[in-house]
Amino acid sequence: MKLKRTRRGDPIMPSTKRAAAALLLIAALGAGLGGCVSIGAKPPGTFLSLTSEAAPAPGTGSSGTLAEATVVLEPGAAAAVSVLRIPVQIDAANVAYIKGAQWVERPSRAFQHLLADTLRARGKGLVVETDRNTTGTRIGGQLQAMGFDAQTRSAVVRFDAMKWLPGGRIETRRFESIVAGASPEPAAIGPALNRAANKVAGEIADWVG
Hints:
The chain is α/β, with parallel strands linked by helices. The chain has a single domain (46-53, 64-208), classed as 3-Layer(aba) Sandwich (Rossmann fold), CATH 3.40.50. It contains three helices and eleven strands; from the N terminus they run ββαβββββαββββα. It has helices at 15-33, 107-121, 186-208, and strands spanning 4-5, 11-12, 46-48, 70-72, 76-77, 85-89, 95-103, 127-129, 137-149, 154-164, 170-180. Strands 3, 4, 5, 6, 7, 8, 9, 10 and 11 form a nine-stranded mixed sheet that branches. Strands 1-2 form a two-stranded antiparallel sheet.
């Protein structure tokens, strides 16, 4: 094969040889970086979600105005549970995260859905999830914990609830559920947290009245 020449007489490498040279260069760069570069993040092995143990039956429904409804707000969340990863409380000052697992959505959002489903199943009338202002009953608060406590080896859900009632009255209460004997493994922590979250949601539903 003859090489083409530029105006200055320098040979130009054919396209097949240029492609081979480029591949060799990429391989050399990869070897030099020692495998430190990867394309895309490795997905976690397990995705967790909350499932209501008292979901309304298919076909059931309710109607009314927003002022008559019980409005479930998305709660705020402490820093450790404002991410998709599952926190492990090592001690009072240190937090780690469970490897290989994460939530499918924000824990605060997942708890909002769970609480709304629990209220509907308990026959609380029209229950909606919205951030719109209303003169009816509103339920919100702060999700303080939804993870694993390493010192007690327990799954913990802690929620500081706030209830706004018609007429401007406000009530608050802390709810907590602890499932002992849990494991920080993804296959075990998910069901334990689901049990704890359902217990808290059920107690809030009783409190709503």
